[in-house]
Each structure stands twice: as C-alpha cells, then as structure tokens.
Records
---
Amino acid sequence: MEIRKIGVIGAGQMGSGIAHVCSLAGLDITLNDISPERAQAGLSLIDSNMQRQAGKGAISDEDRKAALKRIALASDFKALGDCDIVIEAATEDEQIKRKIYSDLCPSLKPDAMVATNTSSISITRLAASTDRPERFIGIHFMNPVPLMQLVELIRGIATEDETFEAAKQLIDKLGKTVAVSEDFPAFMVNRILLPMINEAIYTLYEGVGSVDAIDTAMRLGANHPMGPLQLADFIGLDTCLSIMQVLHDGLADSKYRPCPLLVKYVEAGWLGRKTQRGFYDYRGEHPVPTR
C-alpha cells in the first residue's frame, strides 16, 4: 500500500518531530493530542524548528510554509479515520499505549496501519491489544527526529510482509536509514545505550566521579558528542528509568537493574531538561551540575 496521509498521536518532542519530517517529505499529517492547547504547542515547536532549518539554509522558506500547511491538528481520534497509517508517539507507558489503541482502532479504516514509536516495549504485545496485529509495526525514530538519520524498524510476530514493506518505503521517502531489529526488549540502540547511561549513573552514585568529571571523561576520553549524564537529561530521566525497567523485567538479568540514584531523581520529579532539573540544573543562564 502507498502511504499518503499520516496520523501522529502525541504532539510532544517525538510526535512533533515525526510530523515535521513527514510534512517536509510532502505527506499530509493529522497531529493529535489530548488537548487543542498541546496540539497547538506541538505545531508551534515544528514551526520554530523549521525556521531554524531555514535560517541555516537546510530548507527554503517556501518549503517551510508548504510543510506547515500540510499539518492539521486534532484532539479527536475520529479525525484520523482517513489516515493510511497512524504513528503513536505517546509516553513510554504500556498501559497508556494499549488504552490509546483500544480507543483509536474503531475510528480507523479497515486497511489502515498502526505503528508505535516505542523505544523499548514489545511490539508483539502491543500489537495484540489492537484489532489489526498483522498491520501493526514498530517504527522507532531517534531524538531529535529532524536531525537523526536512523530509524529502527521492528516487526511483531504477526506483522505481515506488506506492512513491513510499506513502513520501509515510508522511511526511505523521509530520507532516513533503516536498521531492522528483532522484537527484543529495548531493541538495538537502547539495549546498548541505556545500560551505558545507567552505568554512568552508578559511577556517580558510588562516588567514583562528579557529574562534570564523568561527562568530561566520556566526551574527551571516548569522543562522545555529549556526556552520558547530559544525554540522560536530554532523553528524560523518566524515560531512561522506564527503558531500564523493561530491560530488567524482560531479560531477567541483574546487570540491567536501574541505579537507585536514577530512581531517586525520578521520584523527586527531577527528570532532566523538561523539568529544568536532572543531573544538571537548567534554571540559570548555564547548566550547573547537581552533584
């Protein structure tokens, strides 16, 4: 099947990023969130990011204006009824995602595909909560979506070949690179990345080094573009914790146990950049380490 119109559920950082790249690729988008205010905030974020691209010469201002006209906002799943595929980009919580699918599927046309942007949860298990597991697939975009080249493509046990090929063609149309992963907890990127971040948090927890020392060591010693604690703040500490819990529960190996300090920060509501506090305090002119 050819994908011409895309629904995106969730107008946060990931959902708005997905809508951003799809609209620039000439596809019509319906961007959905639970309130009109949140959907509008997502559209404003897209506009701001596109203006930044235009300012750098990556796109023309005409491209920006045309892409924005392709994005419609919706706070009702009925508005997604004519979409060829709906990509769910809600918070990394399995119960929330399952509730979305049960509410969404009755509004979709029979041949519509459903995809999830989950970074860790079983595609097979999520697909089983829909009325179309054969037309369900994992399409895991990286953050920030407009800048990151990779997309992990994950099929569940029931995903049909036609669904896989249609999703792959969509990613190709967006100019992204596909990496196919088997349906294991956290797939490939986060299976490798999050335990490294968790180990960096253990290194801080055990007093081996300070926040600044650990991030400096990995930037200059391993040539990472940003330190693991800075990256954790960027991802969101709640998301980091959710992925580590999925790994720990799904693989039953103690090496994936979330660091108690990560748990403490999440319990405190210190979730990183989005709450202005995490391993760094972002409320001033420059980020300041919190430990």
---
Amino acid sequence: MRYSSAQFTHTGAVRDHNEDAYLSFPEDGLWVVADGMGGHQAGEVASQLICDTVSLERQRSGSSMSANELEKAIHLANQRIRKYGDEQLPGATLGSTMVALKITDDRYKILWIGDSRAYLLRESKLKRLSKDHSQVADLVEQGVLSEEEAESHPLANVITRALGVEAEPLIDSVEGKVMPGDRFLLCTDGISREFEREELEQFLMEEPIEDINQALRHAALVKGCRDNITSIIVQVEPPVGLAGLADSARDSTLPLGQWNL
C-alpha cells in the first residue's frame, strides 16, 4: 500500500493562539492530531509534547514504528506532560486530546483519547471510527440525547478523558483492514463541531485531498469557527496497476470549485 496525505492547522476565526498540533509521516503510515487544553502556553505545550514524543520514538524505532510502539509513545507523552505541568506550571490545567492513525501493510489502527476524531470514507460513505470521551457522548450512550442534539449541546466541549490528566490514561482503539481508495480524516473538534457528518462526507468525496483541506479551512473560517481547526486527510493509493482506473473514476467527480462553500 502507498499513502499520501494533506494537512493544515489554523487558529480559527476567534482565538488568538493555536493549541493544536499535528504529525504526518505518510512514508511510514503514521499520523497524529492533538488538541491542547489549559489556555495559552499550557495547551500549546501539551499538544506539541505529544507530537514531539511520537516523532522522537519513531526515530528510535528506525522509522518503522509499530502500532504497539505508537501506543507506548503516547503513554510516554502523557508522563512528559504531567512532569512538565508539575515542574513548570504548578496548579495549572495541562492536557490534550489526541487521535492517531497507524497503517501497517493492509491493516489500520486508530488510537484516541478525548474528542479529537477519526473518520473513514469508503465507497462514498463516511463512517466515524472514534467515539468522543465527553459528557454528551455519555448522555447519547445512555439514550438521554440523540447524536444530533449532542452536537449542539452546551456541554459538548466538556471532555472526560485527556492525556496529562491521569497517571494511567485509558486510550481507546479500533482497527480494521485497509482498502485501496480509502480516505481517513483525523481532526480536532474545531472541525467536527462546524460540520455535520453529511457535509464532511461531501467534502471528502472531492479531488484532490489538498483542495479538500483548503475548502474545509475556508468554510470553517467563513462559519466563524470559535476554536482552533486542524485536519489531516489520508489517501490510500491503489496499487500501481490500478492507478489508471482510479484516475478515470476521479474524472467523473464534480470539481471542488463548483461546490457552494
């Protein structure tokens, strides 16, 4: 399998600093998105510590980090965030949500904590792979709220898990088989709160992925997004022999410029 990716991070339309961070190594099938919390400096440090730690551990593994090694690196990042908080920002809230994707051969694994999300577009259908660790997600599971009500609930931004909060964080994961043509979206809640699943699905069916990310950023800013926004789109390329067929399929799609953003 071969992979390509497009990514961006932006402060958004309201905030004056960016607490998001991301990591992208398509050559190794490795991507991470982190959304820091705790205000200026604290949130930025937490999210960057996650990316820096994973990047360093990748180098130590010889650029062939396994999913298990990635999970160990995430736990190491948790320790580093807690240590930094104790030493440099005593009494401050320091933490970060995180979602990561590791593809090895024909298998993918998603790891996450908090409300940064992972989606998979397959055969023109978008499926959310991650489940938010938040108060409203718990209410949805209990049947108190519907998915639609949860997205606009006033407590939608109250998370129940994050790196840096607990000594032994509970990180969820899901895995499955990778198919040629698959597209993964990793994003912070700044993106997922601005767009319904159907809107994201429509974006992700366009070409190319670099233009999709530009359109996502533009549309979020036009909406007046109140949070930082970060997105990584990962494209699973077809085998070389099928590239021509894939190009033919792309020719039949509507150019992104014709969508009303």
